[in-house]
Amino acid sequence: MPVTDQQAAPRGERKLRSDTRRNRRRLLDAVGELAREAPGQLTMQAVASRAEIGPATAYRYYSSMDDVLAAYVLSVVEKLRDFSTTSTAEGRPLFDAVVDKWVDLLAEHGPALVQLRSRRGFLERLHNGNEIIAALRDAWSRPVQGLLDDLGLPDNMIEYALFLNNMMYDPREIQDLLQETDLSRREVITRLTEAYLGALRGWARAG
C-alpha cells in the first residue's frame, strides 16, 4: 500500500526526535568523560569532538558550555530524585539510603558536577523555579521531612533543612573530603550526616 504524506511525516518526525535524543545523550556522555580525563579542556568544541558531532550541531542543542553542563547535572540529579521517590524506605533509613545513592553518583559524575557554578544562592534558585534545584528539592524533600519527623523537629523548617542539606552535601566538599583526607567513604558519610543532624537541631533551637 502506498505511503501517504500524512503517514510519512510522523515517521520523519520520530526519526528527528530519535536523532536529537541520541545526539544529546552523546554530548552529555562526552561531558562526563572529559570532566574525568581532562577537566581543564572542557569546551564546546572538545565536547562535540568527543561526541563525534559537529560543533554547529552541538550548538543547536546547547547554546553554551554552561547549558550542556546544566543538562548533565540535571540528568544526574534526576537519577537521585527517581531513586528517592520510588524507595519504599521511610524516616532515617530513607535519608541514609539517599545519602548513599548521592555519594555513589558523585563517585561517577562528580568531576562534571563541580564544573557548574551559579552566582545565585540555593533559596533564590529554589524560589525562582530553577530546574536543577527543583529536582534536588524533589529528591531530598521526603527523606529530609522524614528525618525532621524522627528528630521531633517542626515541619515548618523544611525549607531551611533543605538549605542546610544543600550546604552539607555539596559535591565539591564531598569530593574534597574523599580526595584530600584519609577518611573512608563510610566515615565521610557518617561525619557529614552527624554534622547535618547537629545543624538541624541547632537551627531549631535558635528559632
TrEMBL record:
Residue stretches in coiled coil? none
Regions of biased composition (Basic and acidic residues) lie at: 11-21
Database matches in SUPFAM superfamilies: Homeodomain-like (SSF46689)
**The HTH tetR-type domain covers which part of the protein?**
21-80
GO MF, one annotated term: DNA-binding transcription factor activity
Chain intervals for the UniProt region annotation (Disordered): 1-22
| Start-end of DNA-binding region | 43-62
Which UniProt key words apply to this protein? DNA-binding
Q: What is the name attached to this protein's record?
A: AcrR family transcriptional regulator
Q: Which species? A: Thermocatellispora tengchongensis
Q: List the top taxonomic levels of the source.
A: Bacteria, Bacillati, Actinomycetota, Actinomycetes, Streptosporangiales
